[in-house]
Design a protein that fits this description.
Layout (H helix, E strand, L loop, with lengths): L8 E2 L5 E2 L1 E2 L2 E2 L27
Antiparallel strand pairs: 1-2, 3-4
Length: about 50
């Protein structure tokens, strides 16, 4: 089950950053259209968030 409290993260400088379960979410600069997932798997580090 997902809880509202799971959907946030904090940057080290105290700024708010959207995230899930303490892991921040980022947008990939090369994604230009809704649904693009071009950054998925980059350097085997970045992955698309999946429900």
């Amino acid at each position: 089950m997902l809880y509202a409290g799971d959907w946030r993260a904090n940057e080290g400088n105290g700024a708010k950053q959207g995230g899930y379960n303490g892991k921040p979410h980022y947008a990939w600069t090369k994604n230009n259209m809704p649904g693009d997932a071009i950054g998925d798997g980059v350097n085997n580090v970045w992955h698309v968030a999946k429900p």
